Amino acid sequence: MAQKLEVKCLGIMDLEVLKFGGSSLATAEALQRVQSVLLERRAEQKIVVCSAMGGATSALLTAGRLAESGDAGYRESFASIGRRHEQVIEALALPSHLKLPLISEVEVTLKEAEALLRGVHILGELSPRSADAIASCGERLAVPMVAALLRAGGLRVRRVDARDWIQTDDQHGAASVDWTQTSAAILTGVDADLAFDVLITEGYIGRGPDGATTTLGRGGSDYTASLIARATNARRMEKSTDVLGMMTADPRLVPEAEVIPSMSYEEALELCHFGAKVIYHPTIEPLRKSGIPLIVRSTFATDNHPGTAIVASPEHTCIVRGLSSMSDMALITLVGGGIIAKPGFSRRVFTALAQAAINVVLITQSSSEHTITLAIAEGDVPDAERALTEEFEADMTLGRLESIRIDQGLSIVALVGGGMQSAAGVSGQAFEALGRAGINVRAIAQGSTERNISIVLSSIDVPAALRAMHQAFFSNIVQEHRLLCFGTGQVGRAFLDQIHAAAPTLRQRGISIQVVGIVRRQRHLLDPEGIDLGQWSEQLDAAGQGHASTQEIWSHILSSPSLRPTILVDNTASEDTTALYLEAAKARMHLVASNKLAAAGPLDAWLTLNKQLKAAQRSFRHETNVGAALPVLDALAQMVATGDEVLRIEAVLSGSLNFIFSRIQSGQRFSEAVQEARELGYTEPDPRLDLSGEDVVRKILICARACGASLDMKDVHNPGFLPKTAFAGEAGQFMASLADHDSLFVSQDAGVWRFVARFAPGQCAVGLERLPIDHPFAQLQGPDNQIRIHSRRYSTQPLVLQGSGAGAVLTASGVFSDVLRLTAQPPMS
Ligand code: ADP
Ligand code: ASP
Ligand code: MG
Question: Is 454 touching ligand 2 by the criterion CB < 6 Å?
C-alpha cells in the first residue's frame, strides 16, 4: 500500500497535460505535426487531450439540425464528415497493424452517429441529449487517429474514454462537472496504469448521472484538460493551438496584435469572459485554484516560440494587458422617475432576470440614477423583456417606471489589465482613441474587479474600435489616420507621393497614415490594411476598368466596417465627390479638400454641412481652396475666433492669372502665356475657370465665408475681362481662339495688369485692374498670390500673406498639412 502511494505521487507530480485543438487536428499534415511535437517531447510523461478535427463538431450538429427539420440532406452532410476522416486516415500512411483497427473503430463510431441521426430524422426532434451524443463523435473519431500516429512513432500509448472520468450533471450542451467524483475518477484512473508515455483522451465530453453522454459547452476540450491537470496536480497544462499565444487582441480583427508573454489567471479569465475565444473561459479556474501554469502556444511554430504563460504572478504587471470583444449584445435601459434610486429596485431586476436564466454581462447606472442599463446577449432579449415587463407591470401602470428601452446590434469591447486598479486615465485614453476614430460609445462600465473596462458600441464599429484602442495602448503610434482619397490628377498624385515619402518620419513621431482607398473616375483601389503607396499607380491601373460609379463605390465603403476611413480627402474638381460630404460627416469622417465646390457651393448646403460636422464633432479643412498651401483660411479663422474683425481684404488670388499677367508684363503674348500656364499645371484642368474669373470668385467667397459673411456666388461682382462669347463651346475651341484676344492686353502706359479680388462687409468683387508699377501687387512674380487683410487689430498695416498660390506639389503639401492639422498633437520638429 505504502509503495503504491509512492508510485502514484512520483508519477503524477511529473505529468504535464497537453491539449490539441481542432485546428491542430484539421488535416493529415496538422496531425503529423502533432505527432512530431509529441515525439520530440517523448521524455516527459504526459496526458494528451484532443478536440475533434477542426469543424467536425459544427458539421455533426448541423447534420443533426438538418435531420430534425426532416431534410434528407443530412445524409450527405454526414457522409462528408465520414469521407473527410477516411481521407485523412488514408493520407497518414500508417502501418496496417495500426491502420486496420483504426478504420474499424472509426466505422463503428460513424455507424453510431448515423443511427442517432436516423433516429432524429424519424422523430423530427433533436433533443439536447441526442445532440450531445452526436457531437461527442467528433472527439471520439479524433482520439483513435492521434493514438495510432503516436503508436506508429513508437510511443507507449494508453487510451481512456473521457466519459469514465468526467462526471457531470444532466445539463446537456453545457453540463456542470461534479468535481469530487471527477477528480477521484481521474486520480484512480491514471494511477491504475502508469506504464505509458502518453495517456490520451477526449476533450469536451463527459457522462451524466443516468450514464448518457454529455458535453461541457462549445470549446470545452480546454476545460477537460484543465480538470485533468488539476486532479493530477500536473506540472503544467499546455494548450497547443493555431496562434503563437494569447495575443493583445484577436489577430483576425487586429492584424498587428502581439503575443502576450505572460499574464495572470485573472487577466486571462477576464479576456476570455469578454470574448477572447482562444481559451474556453471555465478552463482558467481549476488551474488558478491549484496554481498550475497554463501555456498557450502554437502547434505549428517551428522556432520554439514560448507562447503565453498564464500564471499567478506574471513577470510584469501592466495597465492594459489585452483587448477583447463580444458581439450580438443588447442593452436594456430601464428609465424611471423615483423608483430606480429606491432600495431593492436593482435586486428586483436581477432576480427577475436570474429566474429567466439570463446572464447580465454589464451594468451601468446613470449618476442621476434615473436610468439603469444592462447588457445581455441579443438572443436573451425576448425572455428578458418578458421577465422585466411582468416584474414591473404595476410600476409601469402607476407611472413609477417610465419605460424599458431595448437597443440591439451592439457589441462589448473590453480592455483588461491587472494594473488598471491603480492607474488613472485609462478610460480617458480609450475614449480619446475612440473619439478620434469617430466611434460612438453607447455605454461604459468598469468591472467590479477593476481589472476591466467594458465599452458598448455598435457592432459595425468593433474592428475600428479595436484597432484604435490597440494603437493607443500597444504601440508608440498615438494617432492613426485612415484616408480615403478621391482624385489622382496632379494634386492627388503629388499628395500620395508626399505621404509615402513622409510616412517613416511621421511613424517615429507617433503618427500613422494609411490610405485605405484611392478612387478615380472608373477605377478604384481599396485595402483595409492600407494600400502600398510605393505602387498605388500600377495597382490602380491593374485594378481594371470598373463600371462602379463614385456613388456605388462609396456605398460599398460605408457598408464595409473594415475599410472605415477616418478622413475623406478630395483632390478632384468634381461635384460627384462633394455630394458625398454630408454622408461622410454623418459617418463621422473628417473632410480635407482641395476641391472648392463645397466651400463655394450654395450657402444652404454649406451651412447644412457645417451643422452636421459640428454635431459629429468632425472638421472640414480646405486651406488649399485659397492660395494653395498659404495659411489664409487658418489666419482668417484664428482672427475671427480670437475676436478680431476683418474690415477689408484685397488679394491677388489666382496663381494662374498672376502668372499670365506677369508674363505679359515681361513681353509675352496673352495666348502664349495661357498655354504655358496650362502646361505647368498652374491652371485648373479647364482653364476657362481661371480666365472667366470664376475661380477667383470662389476663392474670395470662401474667404468671405471664413470671415463670417453669408454670401453666395451671385453676390460676388465679376464683370469679366474677355468677351462672353469666348467662353461658349469646348475647352479646345477656347484654347484655339485665345490669340484673338492678345490685343486686349497690349498697353502703352507704365502700369501692370492684375486680377484683384476685394472683400469688405457688404461688398465682394473681382476684376482686372491696371495698377501702377509701385503697387504691392505689381511686384508679384509668376504664380504668386498676395492676400492683404485689414482688421481692427491690423489697423495701420495689413496682415500680408504672400507666396506661390498654384502648383500641384504646393497644393498637395497644403492638403497634407490639413490632414496633419487634424491630429490632436501636430508633429513637432
Ligand atoms: P483551438 O481549436 O486550438 O481550441 P480556437 O480556434 O478555439 O483554437 O482558438 C484559437 C483562435 O482564437 C485563434 O485562431 C484566434 O483566431 C482566436 N483568438 C481570439 N482572440 C484571441 C486572442 N486574444 N489571442 C489569440 N487568439 C485569439
Ligand atoms: N470540438 C468541440 C467544439 O468544437 C470542443 C473543442 O473544440 O474544444 O466545440
Ligand atoms: Mg477552442
Answer: no
Cell numbers found for residue 88: 485523412
The CA-CA-CA angle for residues 363, 369, 375, to 5°, reads 20
Q: Is the CB of 51 under 6 A from ligand 2?
A: yes
**Are 739 and 676 spatial neighbours (Cβ–Cβ below 8 Å)?**
no
SS3 sequence, 599-640? CCCCHHHHHHHHHHHHHCCCCEECHHHCCCCCCHHHHHHHHH
Alpha-carbon distance of 310 to 262, in angstroms, equals 6
Pair 627, 785: CB distance under 8 Å: yes
With 0-12 / 13-18 / 19 or more C-beta atoms within 10 angstroms meaning exposed / middle / buried, residue 469 is buried
243 CA → ligand 1 middle, Å: 7
Sequence letter at residue 325: S
**Cα distances (Å, whole numbers) of residue 700 to 419, 722, 726:** 55, 20, 24
Cell 424519424 found at: 122
Query: Identity (one letter) of the amino acid at 489?
Result: G
- Are 388 and 358 within 8 A, CB to CB? no
The cell numbers describing 156, all together, are 507507449
23 alpha carbon – ligand 1 mean position (Å)? 10
The DSSP symbol for 259 reads B
State yes or no: pLDDT of 6 exceeds 60: no
Using DSSP, state whether 809 is helix, strand or coil. helix
Question: Using CA positions, which residue lies closest to atom 9 of ligand 2?
Answer: 218
Which grid coordinates belong to 797?
498695416
Q: How far, in Å, CA of 264 to CA of 248, rounded?
A: 14
Q: Is 527 exposed, middle or buried (0-12, 13-18, 19+ CB in 10 A)?
A: middle
Considering 46, 277, 699, 724, which one is annotated as catalytic? 699
Residues 271, 272, 278: CA angle, nearest 5 degrees? 115
The answer to whether residues 470 and 256 touch, using CB atoms and an 8 Å cutoff, is yes
**CA 455 → CA 257, 319, 378, 426, 430, distances in Å?**
19, 17, 16, 12, 9
pLDDT digits 0-9 by tens, 45-69: 999 999 999 999 999 999 999 999 9
Which letter does DSSP use for residue 373 in this model? E
Q: Can you read off the three cell numbers belonging to residue 411?
A: 457589441
Q: Is the dihedral of CA 475, 251, 297, 419 positive or negative?
A: positive
Active site residue 699: yes
Ligand (nearest to CA of 19):
1
Task: Quote the pTM value.
Answer: 0.67
- What is the rounded distance in angstroms from the CA atom of residue 273 to the CA atom of residue 636? 53
What is the mean predicted confidence (pLDDT) over 427-456? 86
Q: Which amino acid, 49?
A: V
Distances (CA, A) of 347 to 331, 344, 353, 467, 535: 18, 5, 10, 37, 61
* Model confidence pLDDT, tens digit, residues 734-763: 888 999 999 999 888 889 999 999 999 999
d(Cα 165, Cα 287) in Å, to the nearest integer?
18
Count how many residues are written for the chain.
829
**Residue in the block written with cell 438538418:** 66
